Amino acid sequence: MTIRYAKIAMILALAAFAFLTVFNNITDYSSNFNFVHHVLSMDTTFPDNAARYRAIDQPWMWHGAYWLIIVGEALTAGLLGYGTLKLWQARRAEASVFARAKGWAVAGLTVGFFVWFFGFMVVGGEWFLMWQSDVWNGQDAAFRFYMAILGVLIFLNQPDTEVK
Known about the structure:
Elements: H1 2-27, H2 29-41, H3 59-89, H4 95-101, H5 103-127, H6 139-156
Helix pairs in contact: 1-2, 1-3, 1-6, 2-3, 3-5, 5-6
């Protein structure tokens, strides 16, 4: 049971993290919006950057991208929260039942990985060259987030034994 409880607790912790991320992005909209604005406008990348044609200078697109991030984070939180509940309900069940209950958590972890790896590393980091900015570079934080998610995803998907 200890392993099952550990899996449930880790999913719950990541659900809380994603929830707080959404909460912060909504309640401190302008601070976090500024991050998206500067990354998408590429205004702090290298001055002679030949890829600046990719920059987006439309405020409505900055807001749209920011809300897409918030929705992805909220979906992550919701799926992980529901996944925690399903795992909790199946904690004493047969191993096959507990394994089936992992589906919602796996979906939440996958969405979270997509938000922080694809969104921040691929799109922000490589397409908008966020790595060139000394001020508006969220790659280190994103790395910590998606590696934690990946670690929990791997741990969650380890086979479970029958409850004794």
